[in-house]
Input
Amino acid sequence: MQYNDCFQLGHITRTHGTKGEVVIFLDVDFPEDYDELDSVFVEIKGQLVPYFIKNINVQKGSKAIVKFEDINSIEAAVPLLNCALFLPEETLDELDGSQFYYHEIIGFKVMDEKLGELGIVTTVYTMSTQDLIAMEYRGSEVLIPVNDAIVPNIDRALKILHVSLPEGLLDVYTDETSTPEDGQEDDLD
Output
């Protein structure tokens, strides 16, 4: 399995008990959708290694307690700490309309309904208060809030993310500090 065929599901945060169980953070919108996982790919030293799940118990707060097959002690579980977990993209439900997975829009053109083509999506930041799409625009990173009013549509075939940016958003990132014109002096009195 290759990285570009997968999406990151989350990562292993700590051990749980002494029988090899681990706690994973599920970096997804609906963690309960993953309560019947059979296997995951664990990133170990730059390689995706398949691990089969014996038991998974999804908890509140996007966490789950997982028991992998053949990991039967805390000593066997410790090397997995902080490892990223991946699943094949083909396991994702297909979305339509304005819905999208964050990983799929990386590299998409950003097209504003009034301003035209603006830039390219470079990453998406997920934060507790607001998720933000990062776009490269005229040599600066511009952050676009993710919500239905600002990001109304996506064109997967053409790889275009349609946006309706709030007035002044681009100015926040591109407005340079004004300096006095040549020959003028600041009045510091």
